[in-house]
Write a structure and sequence with these properties.
The chain is α/β, with parallel strands linked by helices and 391 residues long. The chain contains eleven helices and 17 strands. The protein has helices at residues 29-45, 103-111, 128-136, 157-168, 194-206, 216-224, 262-273, 277-287, 297-323, 348-357, 377-388, and strands at 49-54, 68-72, 76-83, 86-93, 95-100, 116-119, 122-126, 142-143, 145-146, 149-150, 177-182, 210-215, 232-237, 242-248, 251-258, 334-339, 365-370. Helices cover 36% and strands 24% of the residues. Among the domains are: 96-143, no CATH class; 257-370, ATPase, nucleotide binding domain (Nucleotidyltransferase, domain 5). The strands form four sheets. The protein has a six-stranded mixed beta sheet. The protein has a five-stranded mixed beta sheet with strand order 15-14-13-16-17. A four-stranded antiparallel beta sheet has the order 6-7-5-8, sandwiched between helices. 43% of the residues are buried. Bound molecules: adenosine-5'-triphosphate and magnesium ion. Magnesium ion binds next to loops.
Length: 391
């Protein structure tokens, strides 16, 4: 494994509140040693494999006894914890469904261990339970987030998101570090991530945790690029957006997001062929193979919008790299690592590499890699960062 020149204290990329002296040489050599051990533990964790599972209906929230990584995504919320030789992740659907209040329904919901809360004349069914209800009623779940941040269209969005988070994380008095993912500022929309970040930070603190945010692109790097000294370009392509970060030795040099991802593909393809976006999503997740010629008009449209998304992403990356005044003098070629559910179809890496050949990046790219477990990369990277912040 390549050796990262170790910083004293935190990884420089974390958004922890600056602590006095955390990056300064300390007089206390025992303290320095402990810091170095913490960084070593974090680097070891980035080499571990992930054992993932879905949150089971009726399963209680956990009270972690160590640092936690939390990926708060438009489609899923994933929690990661260090567990011996592995990293364990649990994922919950970031969705809800409402049904009218009645005493009888309440009894049924409780007996079936459904996660819900009641407000005014409605029950709010949360997470995977919501999906079951929506399927039964032949309709869609509702989302707390849109395009990577809290939805402005859902009045109850904040309360529901908080309840979904607390279905994974129980209240504690241990002040464990929770490192949670945050999108970069979108370059193609008017939205800002500041409100979203503050709401989540306040809520995690109210549960008794020590919250620290990490940029989602940087989390991809922390998870996948330990052998490259955490230097390269991390791209997380999720449901609501794509997050991009250029990092040098774990320091985020440039980060931004575009508010297009898997949801954009679903709705554009749906509109083009006259099918609901949910049906397109099912086809895309079930059978899309970008390596072969499209077999019908839905596959043709999926192909077109995959190319469109990648070309928009790479065009924006080229523009951001050319116009930034923060560009470091990096002589070596850099790897690009791709994560998030949108990179899962067969043939995606080839499609991305083809797109890369069409742009003229101002720095050399050594290779394009797909993350080892794209749906859990962000949570794992956030946990690696949380480990480095433990002391
Ligand atoms: N097998 C698959 N093939 C294609 N796309 C998939 C597959 N599995 C999931 N997806 C897509 O991946 C997206 C969800 O990815 P992910 O869970 O990484 O997003 P997220 O982190 O919740 O969202 P974001 O980071 O954008 O806020 C959805 O658009 C989903 O349709
Ligand atoms: Mg994501």
């Amino acid at each position: 494994m390549a050796k990262l020149k170790k910083s004293r204290g935190n990884f420089p990329g974390s958004n922890a509140a600056p602590q006095s002296g955390s990056h300064q040489p300390s007089d206390n050599s025992a303290g320095e040693l402990a810091d170095l051990e913490t960084i070593e533990t974090a680097m070891e964790a980035s080499h571990k494999t992930v054992v993932s599972r879905d949150k089971e209906i009726g399963e209680m929230a956990e009270k972690p006894s160590g640092p936690v990584g939390l990926d708060i995504g438009t489609s899923h919320i994933v929690m990661a914890q260090n567990a011996g030789r592995h990293i364990n992740t649990v994922n919950q659907l970031n969705a809800f469904f409402t049904i009218p209040y009645s005493k009888f329904t309440k009894k049924i919901l409780v007996e079936n261990d459904i996660t819900f809360y009641a407000k005014e004349d409605q029950f709010y069914i949360l997470g995977y339970s919501a999906e079951n209800f929506a399927n039964m009623f032949n309709t869609n779940t509702r989302r707390t987030m849109e395009k990577g941040i809290l939805s402005s269209h859902e009045d109850e969005g904040i309360t529901v998101l908080q309840s979904i988070i607390s279905s994974l994380l129980a209240k504690t008095d241990q002040q464990e570090v929770v490192c949670f993912s945050m999108p970069g500022e979108p370059v193609d929309g008017k939205a800002s991530v500041v409100y979203h970040e503050s709401i989540i930070k306040m809520y995690l603190a109210s549960l008794g945790y020590r919250p620290i945010s990490i940029n989602e692109g940087l989390a991809t790097i922390m998870s996948e690029l330990a052998d490259d000294n955490f230097t390269g370009i991390g791209i997380s392509m999720g449901g609501g957006m794509c997050n991009i970060c250029l990092s040098y030795l774990s320091v985020p040099v440039l980060s931004f997001s575009i508010q297009r991802g898997g949801d954009y593909i679903d709705s554009m393809v749906g509109a083009s062929v006259g099918e609901p976006a949910t049906r397109i999503k099912m086809i895309k997740e079930g059978s899309l193979n970008l390596a072969r010629s499209p077999q019908d008009r839905v596959e043709t449209a999926l192909d077109i919008y995959y190319v469109d998304l990648v070309s928009h992403l790479l065009g924006t990356l080229e523009h951001e790299l050319r116009t930034t005044d923060k560009m470091p003098n990096i002589n070596n070629a850099l790897p690009i690592v791709l994560s998030g559910g949108t990179v899962l179809p067969k043939g995606f890496q080839d499609l991305f590499e083809k797109g890369l050949r069409k742009v003229n990046m101002p720095l050399e790219i050594s290779e394009v890699r797909i993350a080892s477990d794209p749906l859990n990369t962000t949570a794992k990277g956030a946990m690696v960062m949380a480990l480095s912040e433990e002391i």
